Amino acid sequence: MMLTVAMPKGRIFTEALVLLKQAGYDIPDDLEHSRKLMIDVPNEQLRFILAKPMDVVTYVEHGVADVGIAGKDVLLEEERDVYEMLDLRISPCYLAVAGLPNTCVHPIAPRVATKYPNIASTYFREQGEQVEIIKLNGSVELAPLIGLAERIVDIVSTGRTLKENGLIELERIVHVTSRFIVNPVSYRMQDRAIEHMVDRLTYAIEKAGESNEN
Amino acid sequence: MRVFMFEKPLGMRDTLPDVYKTKRALREAMMEEIETWGYSFIETPTLEYDETVGKASAILDQQLFKLLDREGHTLVLRPDMTAPIARLAASKLYEEGCPLRLAYAANVFRAQQREGGRPAEFEQVGVEYIGDGTMYADAEVISLMIFALKRAGLCDFTVTIGHIGYVDALFFDVLRQEQRVETLRRFLYEKNYVGYREHVKSLSLSSIDRDRLLRLLTLRGGGEVIAEAKTYATTEAEQRALDELEQLWTYVDQYGVTDMVKLDMSLVSHMSYYTGVLFEVYAKNVGFLLGNGGRYDGLLAKFHRPSPATGFSVRLDRLMEAIGEQRRTEKTTCIIFSQERFAEAYAKATEMRQKGENVVLQHVAGIQNMDQFTASFDDVVYVLGKRGKDER
């Protein structure tokens, strides 16, 4: 029986592919550069679908993909009903609040621009601060520069984008890595195949961990 | 804007003829099986008070449809059938003596918070078995669910059983405080195994206790899991829960359905509702839970009649998705008549209907497009003009 794997296009994809290869999966090299959105690898009994990172969890929750690879940021934002089985320890970064140096927060209606409205509103609520969230779909760093919002909540990996735009990190919210997620029905109906995949990935993660330490 | 008034509220769906037939066939198959086990079907109102049934229900508050009655009381569209049946059992039926075996096939309502793809009104078929705290009751409910699904024609499905009493006993023994137990339980409820493992590793525990908590995630499989869990059980409460599961497994085996059943000691379907054995059922080709159930010994007490109880519910919409529209719909004949031969046409229709056949009786003048209309029937009989002419 074939397992359908939802993969995030972009940043995480390359690292996820390396990990899968380390786990012993025989995956063709042209996968990364293909324009196809659905690719079968029959000798491994796998079908890959390539989706936007934010959409991977949706495909897996609805069961059209059995398993998937998604960032913890997406899992926190979307709160989907899926199993979070493994921390793949790839694509490490963190979510942070950032703004211009000497940011003055608007006294009545502080505004926060972000791609993660759910995470941002939960975070500020927990801090006891009421803010107005403005949802953006990218280039969030622009918002404080142009006066759309005083602060932003976004992913930071090296901090270079912030720096080049003259922004500074104000608070760290949460550390983020990619996770191996599983649809709740597939988890039961395809338990053998999924357990096998989890074992192979666990082995690859440990091996990667060892080589990082050396 | 012109078409807006014909839209339906989010998650509300129409049922067209073919789907209706399939749905009815599935419902009836399940109902027949449930009735042969001696359960009585009942109906309860669609609207209930939020104060009673709304609060007692296992469904989250933000998923309830609420409205106000003329006196300003908050009403809810029933989000499940268990709470209304508990209300009914506690107030009216209790005098009849326990145990009670009740069943239902009814629509329930749950508001959608996110995108479409999920109905906000759907039908559930299920049973409630009230007043019997023995493991025979749990085994009966699980087995009946399996038999009813098989009767409906479902083949490829699996039932996963857990025991919340075991999870709680283990967590309490290690963590000692309700709040810490709840934090850990939430990771399992949210299916966040990464978070669970990280949290356990962050607690200051003896290595034995840490292993006990981590091992919980691996206690999955057949009957052998109970024996494995028993070798690690240190408290009486853990032991008691495992004894119950062991009994359950033996009884379910008597029903001959253990090949459909698996155990998962880490199963947590709800944060607080269930009190003992709980289970979920999954089917191939459906991404979401097909049905679930379990022991809810705390619910009847909310209606001032403490009593053990267990039950299951299966979602008919998802069952239909799992089975597909493979059922053959019966054939329908159309008799097209003209005025002078109406009596003859009606007599023919009656004769066929009495034999159980489906017959449409249609006056020829009422048809606008003859080809299009007749194409939807398996057979067409023309009773037109003077007798003896144009037959068929």
Describe this structure in words.
The complex is a heterodimer of chains A (214) and B (392). Chain A has 214 residues and is α/β, with parallel strands linked by helices. Chain A has 2 domains: 3-91 and 177-213, Periplasmic binding protein-like II (D-Maltodextrin-Binding Protein, domain 2); 93-175, D-Maltodextrin-Binding Protein, domain 2 (3-Layer(aba) Sandwich). In chain A, 36% of the residues lie in helices and 29% in strands. Chain A has helices at 11-22, 53-61, 72-78, 117-126, 142-146, 160-164, 184-189, 191-213, and strands at residues 3-8, 38-41, 46-51, 67-71, 83-87, 93-99, 111-114, 132-135, 151-156, 168-176, 178-182. In chain A, the strands form 2 sheets. In chain A, strands 2-3-1-4-11-5 form a 6-stranded mixed β-sheet, sandwiched between helices. Chain A has a 5-stranded mixed β-sheet with strand order 8-7-9-6-10. Chain B is of the alpha/beta class and 392 residues long. Chain B is 39% helix and 21% strand. The longest helix of chain B has 20 residues, at 17-36. The two termini of chain B are 48 Å apart. At the A-B interface, strand 5 and helix 7 of A face helix 7 and strand 10 of B.
